[in-house]
Structure formats: structure tokens, C-alpha cells
Amino acid sequence: xxxxxxxxxxxxxxxxxxxxxxxxxxxxxxxxxxxxxxxxxxxxxxxxxxxxxxxxxxxxxx
Length: 62
Known about the structure:
Oligomer: single chain
Region (Disordered): 36-62
Order of helices and strands: EEH
Keywords: ATP-binding, Helicase, Hydrolase, Nucleotide-binding
Organism: Marinobacter excellens LAMA 842
Strand order of the largest sheet: 1-2
Protein name: ATP-dependent helicase HrpB
Number of helices: 1
Domain ATP-dependent RNA helicase HrpB C-terminal: 2-47
Strand content: 5-15%
Shape: globular
Radius of gyration: 13 Å
């Protein structure tokens, strides 16, 4: 199985057949790049333990 990780703009960020290796090696670099480009989206430091969510980060209540 081949997995394609897409950006929020639906552009390809990474393609892998080894998901365990991807989380360990490629994801930290992808995460660093995407945090700057898409700051409203969650980019967890540890995606294996992060809780799934839909949509973007919520703004704090005023």
C-alpha cells in the first residue's frame, strides 16, 4: 500500500509505503515546513498519540 500525505491545499507533501519510517524520519521535517505555511492547522509533534480532529485550530474565546 502506498500512502500520499496531502497538504490542506491538496498538494502532495510526501509519498510512502513504510508508514512507521515516515513518522520517525520524514514527518518532523514536513511538520516543521507546514507549521509556518498553514498555522491554523494542527501539526502535532507526536502524531501517533495525538487525538484526531476535524478542521482547523479553534481561536481562543475572548
